[in-house]
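Hi support team,

I've been running sequence recovery on a batch of backbones for a student project. Most finish fine, but this one hangs at about 90% for roughly twenty minutes before it completes. I'm not sure whether the input is malformed or the queue is just slow. I've pasted the structure tokens below so you can try to reproduce it. Let me know if you need the job ID as well.

Thanks,
M.K.
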């Protein structure tokens, strides 16, 4: 297999050329929402090397981070959706891509009436290191020997902590369009960890990328043309979803999967998928006497915290799980049962989330509950039922 450094250099060189002139081989046709393309300069649209459209899932007011922003198309679309109250940050490692994106940013800002996009130079597997800051420092203290090399390494570490390119817990949604596959295998774990780090609790990642339907063999991985062309570095469909899980995400699901492969190489199909994954399942578990009922349609489900639930049964859940289930992507699948007597969070006892247990309705109502009522006029959608 080729050396990681060589892989990254080849990727940078190929996309540096792709920033100057459109490279058709790097394109996978995508239907963007045309109303957002109207104000984007033609050279940005022409140098489009995406394979999906994560910008469709961005919302007004959000802070968005686009990994491998290229000439800036996804950032410029997202800028129009998030509006003046939101913010968009594009990160790319290739100077030529950043040059095109930065040159066009003021044009887009003028057309949309607000300046809410900026482009930063960094490697997406190391989102703490600001490469332009490092560059400036190294100009003052160039690397000339082993000692200055080690000092530069220390300096990089200091910059990561004191002036991070993207700070921890600051982003509402991380998007990316056809870039994660370009990161060398040894850094893929770091890459997903970095996405997780920069997201706020409750934030999400929406990533479009090329995946394969079989493992990519070693000889294909060492082909630089295939690598930089978004083929050899592709994770399998299963591996892609698993990478989010391993980084601590929950609620991971496929938003879009192209039925037709983009390319087939030696019988292996490469296609575009868009996946959404959420951050926020970590934290303490408290007992507030709540219960949930899985609505179906499957006989049972298993969530990312190993809660296994059968359709129609009432389960005891901690306050954290209860609140996670009330939000996307889960809320449509559950019914929620609040206790009749509220347990304030400040008084709640720890809840053992390592096992899933059923909760009898007497627990949420209270053991002594023995009320008898007349028919409730509010039932049956306001009709006069029963
Ligand atoms: C296939 S292009 C996609 C560009 C853009 N997302 C789009 O939709 O047109 C890949 C981009 O990712 C950048 N890139 C590749 N690997 C990167 C890395 N490890 N860190 C930062 N940028 C990277 C390249 O410079 C290039 O601009």
């Amino acid at each position: 297999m080729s050396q990681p450094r060589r892989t990254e250099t080849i990727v940078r060189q190929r996309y540096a050329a792709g920033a100057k002139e459109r490279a058709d081989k790097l394109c996978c046709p995508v239907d963007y929402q045309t109303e957002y393309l109207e104000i984007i300069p033609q050279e940005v649209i022409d140098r489009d090397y995406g394979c999906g459209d994560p910008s469709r899932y961005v919302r007004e007011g959000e802070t968005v981070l686009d990994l491998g922003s290229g000439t800036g198309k996804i950032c410029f679309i997202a800028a129009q959706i998030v509006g003046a109250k939101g913010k968009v940050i594009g990160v790319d490692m290739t100077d030529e891509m950043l040059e095109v994106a930065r040159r066009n940013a003021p044009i887009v800002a003028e057309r949309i009436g607000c300046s809410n996009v900026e482009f930063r130079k960094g490697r997406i597997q190391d989102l703490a290191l600001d490469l332009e800051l490092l560059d400036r420092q190294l100009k003052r203290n160039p690397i000339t020997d082993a000692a200055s090399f080690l000092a530069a390494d220390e300096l990089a570490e200091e910059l990561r902590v004191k002036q991070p390119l993207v700070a921890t817990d600051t982003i509402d949604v991380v998007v990316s369009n056809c870039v994660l596959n370009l990161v060398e295998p040894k850094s893929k774990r770091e890459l997903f960890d970095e996405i997780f780090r920069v997201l706020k609790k409750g934030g999400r990642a929406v990533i479009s990328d090329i995946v394969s339907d079989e493992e990519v063999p070693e000889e294909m991985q060492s082909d630089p043309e295939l690598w930089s062309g978004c083929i050899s570095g592709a994770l399998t469909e299963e591996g892609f979803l698993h990478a989010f899980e391993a980084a601590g995400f929950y609620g991971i699901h496929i938003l879009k999967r192209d039925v037709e492969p983009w390319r087939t190489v030696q019988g292996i199909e490469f296609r575009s998928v868009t996946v959404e994954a959420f951050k926020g399942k970590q934290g303490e578990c408290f007992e507030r006497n709540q219960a949930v009922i899985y609505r179906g349609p499957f006989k049972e489900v298993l969530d990312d915290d190993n809660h296994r639930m059968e359709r129609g049964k009432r389960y005891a859940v901690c306050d954290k799980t209860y609140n996670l289930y009330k939000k996307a992507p889960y809320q449509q699948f559950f019914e929620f049962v609040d206790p009749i007597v509220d347990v304030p969070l400040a008084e709640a006892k720890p809840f053992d989330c390592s096992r899933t247990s059923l909760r009898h309705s007497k627990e949420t109502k209270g053991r002594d509950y023995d009320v008898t009522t007349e028919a409730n006029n509010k039932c049956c959608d306001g009709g006069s039922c029963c």
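--
Follow-up from support: It reproduced on our side and the slowdown came from queue contention, not your input. The pocket of S-adenosylmethionine is lined by residues 11, 15, 26, 48-50, 68-70, 73-74, 92-94, 97, 123-125, 177-179, 182-183, 230 (CB under 6 Å). No action needed from you.
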